[in-house]
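Hi R.,

Quick one: here's the Potassium transporter sequence you asked about.
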Amino acid sequence: MDIESGSYQNIAKKESWRTVLTLAFQSLGVVYGDLSISPLYVYKSTFAEDIHHSETNEEIFGVLSFIFWTITLVPLFKYVFIVLRADDNGEGGTFALYSLLCRHARVNSLPSCQLADEQLIEYKTDSFGSSSSSSSMIPQSGFAAGLKSTLEKHRVLQKILLVLALIGTCMVIGDGVLTPAISVFSAVSGVELSMSKEHHKYIEVPAACIILIGLFALQHYGTHRVGFLFAPIILLWLLCISSIGLYNILHWNPHVYQALSPVYMYKFLKKTQSRGWMSLGGILLCITGSEAMFADLGHFSQLSIKIAFTSLVYPSLILAYMGQAAYLSQHHVIESEYRIGFYVSVPEKLRWPVLVIAILAAVVGSQAIITGTFSIIKQCSALGCFPKVKIVHTSSKIHGQIYIPEINWILMILCLAVTIGFRDTKRLGNASGLAVITVMLVTTCLMSLVIVLCWHKSVFFAIAFVVFFGTIESLYFSASLIKFLEGAWVPIALSLCFLAAMCTWHYGTLKRYEYDVQNKVSVTWLLSLGQTLGIKRVRGIGLIHTELVSGVPAIFSHFVTNLPAFHQVLVFLCVKSVPVPHVRPEERFLVGRMGPKQFRMYRCIVRYGYRDVHKDDIEFEGDLVCSIAEFIRSEAATAVTAAAETNGEEEDERMSVVGTCSTYMQGIEDQDDDPDKPGTSEIRSPKPLKKKKSKVKKKVRFVVPETPKIEKETREELMELAEAREGGVAYIMGNAYMKAKHGSGLVKRVAINVGYEFLRRNTRGPRTALTSPHASTLEVGMIYHV
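And here's the predicted structure, written out as tokens:
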């Protein structure tokens, strides 16, 4: 037995390592594409104007020393050893850090949050994988407790935290514009060595634009068909640049390794002074794409990303930069400024093959940042910080492969504009560098709060983290910002535009929700209204989409008073996002009853994480009806117990956690083949698993009639639900027109009447959240005076 169990553990261990190594290989094409192609333009951007390559080699050795320590300290020490541990249930990125802070400090930008959301499994799990109950037992320092209390009490600080996260997000979007431009342009610039400068400038820009147009035009097909080629391309590129670098080191200057000493950084700054400080904006480009290690964490594992970087990416990049420095240290006569780039250090016979590989690698790196931009905009939209956009899932098997048509064409136009407008690596590098370092600064600030509030570490550790990495990044940030007029204004302008749109949309969304809360009506009012207006019930299911989690929305009372009729089964549906990356299927639905049983009115709250995939209308309808049917069964099964528990309590809406149909797959055949239960087979909703059912029992507390009536009424209710489903499902949605109240301030009137209404009219409507069929959708217009 011991031998068998030991061999089984060895097999399992080998399989796990095989999986990790496979993920590490696949991460090359998704995570490290942008970082791997940085040797194409770092030296060229650094020596553009600020400093010049002299025969003493102090400049080239100083730049190499800066590159080595920058790559070592930021991507390796900061991200690989520290930041990657701050995952949000396996997800990474700016919003992952913000989500962690929202849960641990109760700082939430989502207005429709409930206490029931805190019972989600992923909500109760911290970044180390332990439950919140165990982490809450860890004693907090006085500073941490005070900081948490301050954040929870002051809404201004919560807004500042949200704006900080949005600034990082906007810079990522700006990077999605600039990275494809500089990557493709730098790769194509290899033709400059094969023709005169007068001719190659007419080739570079058109060729780069054609590649960029093709890249964006093919986005709607997705990358799942050619994605398997991404990792081999980047692997081939890394082997190529590391081999060329090793050749240049051995052939031109074997002693170039001495330049890795920090002493050369001091000599470099001492000789170049202010010009050397300004050149840091070019050196900064060597860590372009480092944030992707954290942002794309959800597609891979921490260990796979660490293995790929430490074993392959990091040594390949160091060899590539050392090889270029070794070549340039023996070639001081530069015919023109563009001959200090990457391709000049490539042996002449290999230049054309390397050029082809570089273009392919640039396309792969650009594809990764474009997909990342789509993903982060989806997260912003889910958290109410970006207008509704159409999200197309290009692959049913690969998580995170999405396409947003509007954003894709906006990115393409902006990318072509900066490529044609700048036409050189220097200004493109200045723009890209500022976007990259700003995202890193935001990550450093949020990470310091995570260390104190989420990890419960000493405040001195957080201060040391901010001071050490913040100082390095602030140095590069200042060097990039000083070049505002030389291209650095582009990411600032783009970020301000996107930030204004995000803040305006978020402000308008909050005001709309506040109006709904203030003007909602009670279920009692709705029931009494039926006797006054003579409301008729028609066949079918009516889904009233609302943002409220309690009460009747004003949009429905507006609809009923003008058209006194609604469906035989009425479901008040709230589709909302919660500050976790994913919601498990068994926790997806919260179902409750509104009013007496005979009125057949329900409330259903559908919860999605900010990275969850929303289902299409047909599958969603099936899951919704199944969840209501399962709620009816669970209510009947727990009726006696619930009645005893709620004896003497005030009757109100109580919600039950019900999973999707996929979590109740056992028992389908038994349910459908049972002739003694008419009506249940029509709904096609099987019985839940026993362990799930026991969890539901604890949450459902309803007062129902005594036991002899339960079976009959339950059967009738299920049959009526099945009949209503056959009659069709109608989606009733509100289309609110926002107007600022008379006497409102100028800022509010501009934000609501101009900004929010412009975004609402020119973006997707409320149907986007549900992907409801056009023929079954009824939009009810109403003016909101906020």
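Residues 521-639+718-785 form one domain.

Cheers,
M.
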